[in-house]
Amino acid sequence: MLSHMRNIGIMAHIDAGKTTTTERILYYTGKIHRIGEIDDGAATMDWMSQEQERGITIQSAATTTYWKDCQINIIDTPGHVDFTAEVERSLRVLDGAVAVICAVGGVQPQTETVWRQANEYKVPRLCFVNKMDRIGADFYAALDDVAEKFGETCLALVLPIGKESNYEGLIDLIRMKELRFDAESEGEIIHESEIDASRRAEAEEWREKIIDALSMHNDEIAELYLSGEDVPEALIIKQIRQSTIERHFIPFFCGSARKNSGIQPLIDAIVAYLPAPDEVAPAIGINVKKEESITIPCDADAMPLGLIFKIQHEREAGSLAYIRMYSGKIKSGEQVYNIGKKKRERVNRLLRMHSNKSDPLDSVSAGDIAVIIGLKQAQTGDTIGSEGVPILLESMHFPEPVISVSIEPETLSDRDKLKETLDILSKEDPTFISRDDKETGQLIISGMGELHLDVLVTRMLEDFKLQAKVGKPQVTYRESISGEAQHTENYEKLLGGKEQTASVSLLVKPATSEGNSYSNSLRMPEIPQEIFDAIKRGVENSFMSGIQYGYPCTNISVELVDLDYSELTSTAFAFEACTVQAFDAACKKASPEILEPIMNVDILSPKEFVGDAMSQITQRGGLILSLDSKPSIEVVHAQAPMEKMFGFSTSLRSVTQGRASFSMAFSHFQIKQGGLNFF
């Protein structure tokens, strides 16, 4: 029954209490029998050894639990900006989300990033304002912060009783009751009481705001409201659900996950207000044969279609492929078809995951999430379906890596193992890339930030038991051109006693939009298609190998202007080699430039240290964009070149007595002044 299923994610800024909230949800739904603490390194969802050591979520763990006859598939996503791919791939397959917001910090920089990603995928969400017992906690300020920063209509469905050390519990504005969570039973027993007279007027005022907001979307509620009659509770809940799914407003809840307060009302809200898989807009796919868009209704009796949203390597089982089914059913033991790779594979086993533990399944149907064991070719973003109706679900787009390190095996025998490990890790994480540097012969790995690469390198050394030496972090630059040039290249070579010739004319100029492009306006039916394919391949390979320094190219438009073909001596190989030489020569004439990554930097600092924090960023060539003042903290928004940001966390901690923190995300590439200096 799809109406009894929810696919939800918990999203937030790092340290907002996201994993703690998930732990409490699992505890109250009976999935775990003891509450694990992040601070003790014992959280269920943070099962990787590094997650336990660092106290952060790195991989989006998936688990299934049950509450009042409803199956809830939960994906716990990372809050750190370096693991943006994990957040992105999770949001792609969710039907609803819970945004955890810190009652002290309000909307923090990474909250903004995940909120924007959730908007992109049109994910309905609830907000849970956590840490109501902390000094500086303010539920109403968090409400205003979300409304102001995201332009959302926020609807408080509960009110806190007290705050900071005086925080006692909640007022349920739908049922008009006070709820207090019993400390001795770890919040399992909830004491209900009538609303205290001193709080009654405020509660009625906030309840009226709910009815007022609902009446704008429901004529029946509007009529009852205008005639002064009571609106039935069932009608209120039904309309809140509909308006939440249609994203007219964001319902707000609050509590303290660490103090086991306010979690059960949040789980009730997940079931009551977030959509079932068949209540969200159907997924969009592309029919590969007809090359047209198609909507995919969530129907268990239709052809099977699912998206691999995560690959996780497990030492004994091999690759665990997390799949979200959009249509049809897949059974254990049957063959499935990887539509993008045009490969058939067997589903050896199907599992229902609980963090890193599992239960076997016979089949997985539309709307559900499960793990397939046995897919050797599958990668993140692949569509699994049937050969008869090849529909490709839109693939996921991930940001480009901006930081690299060299890695060398300590012995030659470790080189194959290193390549194998890199292959496994890049299948798991699309933002992790490895390549051979042609000039130095080194193996280079690239990622989203220092923490991202640090985690991946530690996994290689500890989890995969690799013996390797790691170089210092290097910035991943890009190459481009600022001018326009045309070049004709002639190619003649004697290979294996046979003459090979080709001639290609290319026009290169700066692209009008992001990324590279290649076009061919020549119409020469007498020339075999394989020659044009070879030229295109030559251009695409050149984009990857750079112009002067071997960095990938960006924002270059290439047009094939002319070619000279001889039936006797021209080959596809000759044309591909000729194209590479033509591209290099044309770009060198077109004023080549080196581009460096510029990062968005958000610094959270106490008021007394904000000046020191700002001077740290300006000393590194950074530009202060704006300053947000909050009751207990200042947020500095800045931009700075990536290459100047190495070691920034150490210097920021030293000038702020360890009390400031920062997050960094890629913004754009810009021309590097003075070029590259390798000496």
Widest sheet, order of strands:
18-17-23-14-15-22-19-20
CATH fold group of the largest domain: Rossmann fold
Count of helical regions: 15
Top CATH class of the largest domain: Alpha Beta
Segments where pLDDT lies below 50 for 5+ residues?
35-60
- Identify the overall geometry: globular
State the helical fraction. 25-40%
Sheet/helix structural class: alpha+beta
Question: Tally of extended strands?
Answer: 38
- As a whole number of angstroms, the C-alpha radius of gyration is 28 Å
**Average of pLDDT:** 83
Please indicate the percent range of residues in DSSP E strands (runs of 2 or more). 25-35%
Biggest beta sheet summary: 8 strands, antiparallel
Give a written overview of the molecule.
The protein is of the alpha+beta class and 679 residues long. It has five domains: 2-279, Rossmann fold (3-Layer(aba) Sandwich); 283-393, Translation factors (Elongation Factor Tu (Ef-tu), domain 3); 403-476, Elongation Factor G (Translational Gtpase), domain 3 (Alpha-Beta Plaits); 483-590, Ribosomal Protein S5, domain 2, CATH 3.30.230.10; 594-671, 2-Layer Sandwich (Alpha-Beta Plaits), CATH 3.30.70. Strands 18-17-23-14-15-22-19-20 form an eight-stranded antiparallel beta sheet. A seven-stranded mixed beta sheet has the order 2-3-1-4-5-11-6, sandwiched between helices. α6 (197-215) packs across α7, α12 (529-545) packs across α13 (572-589) and α14 packs antiparallel against α15.
